[in-house]
User: Fold this.
Amino acid sequence: MAEAKALTQRATDFSAWYNELVARAELADYSPVRGCMVIRPNGYAIWEQMQRALDQMFKDTGHQNAYFPLFIPQSFLAREAEHVEGFSPETAVVTHAGGKELEEPLVIRPTSETIIYSMYAKWIQSYRDLPVLINQWANVVRWELRTRLFLRTTEFLWQEGHTAHATEAEAEEETVRMLGVYRTFMEEWMAMPVLTGRKTDSERFAGALRTYSCEALMQDNRALQAGTSHNLGQNFA
Assistant:
């Protein structure tokens, strides 16, 4: 039996070491769809543990889980000029279904602000209905050109929390609080130190007033955005 090839030394070639480690640990594999990956059982078991721990942290802060559609009417994004401009290069659009051209194209969600807040507008009738604290575990699609397993793929799993508040001060408090939840999870549960702070205007989320993030320093000396929290103001109301 042939001996397994030695793992590339991390100090020699970090990128090769990372890719080989993911493959040998059977965490994930490349799929037939370019830019997408298959999360193998070992990798998905890790995800389930992360999800379970973080989900409890969300519930401890009063959030409830819900699920919203994968497909978003293109007109919903068109209403938010800055938002659609920020995501247009990354969106995948369905134009045909059932052998027919759709009356309105459907965007496969890159994120769910437009469709979630359209429902909030229906559900929230007065201040008595506030605050609304909802989290969604889902998959999203962003058409990435340069991909790497787990770090950047066209389709990926994530969570997105969306809240509504009576005042701007309450919204800002929630934004900062959830950034703290992410940091606690990363540092105390995952033992992964991060830097937290406010993004510059050029880096903030498309459609947000302010964006805060957790940045993890990787061993190739690059920072990886590991979690974000946004104050959207009235932009999606």
Observations:
- The two ends are 64 Å apart (CA to CA).
- Residues 29-164 form a domain with the BirA Bifunctional Protein; domain 2 fold (CATH 3.30.930.10).
